[in-house]
Write a structure and sequence with these properties.
Distance between the termini: 47 Å
Shape: globular
Largest sheet: 6 strands, antiparallel
């Protein structure tokens, strides 16, 4: 018997809404799909089928994510050499979506924005 999901399903519209709420984010169409950028650096793409999205993710962390949760994270063949991971929308709730988008935003944002928005979880300078 499968467990029923108590979480609300998120959509590509939620990706857009949350990404655009992050500081200095703009949407730009590239490769015929929506991309979201901060200070000119891309941090989210939403492919045509709108069932997943791609975010920045260091390769070591990416490999761990894919191994730990293959139903949620995967790597597209054309992104294997880059530091990006795909995320299945159906496997997320809104809070997790917010966390993933904010993490990708932090990886692309310049220091001035990270310093101006500590509520977004600026990494400590140990």
């Amino acid at each position: 018997m499968s467990k029923s999901r108590s979480r609300a399903r998120v959509t590509s519209d939620d990706v857009r809404r949350i990404a655009l709420a992050l500081p200095d984010t703009v949407e730009k169409i590239a490769w015929s799909m929506p991309t979201f950028r901060v200070a000119g650096k891309m941090f989210v793409t939403v492919p045509d089928d709108e069932t997943s999205f791609a975010v920045r993710c260091p390769k070591v962390e990416r490999d761990e994510l894919v191994l730990a949760e293959p139903d949620k994270f995967w790597v597209a063949a054309h992104e294997a050499a880059s530091a990006w991971v795909r995320v299945r929308l159906a496997a997320l709730d809104e809070e997790e979506l917010k966390d993933i988008l904010a993490d990708s935003w932090r990886q692309a944002a310049p220091p001035r924005l990270l310093e101006a928005h500590p509520e977004l979880g600026v990494p400590s300078a140990d």
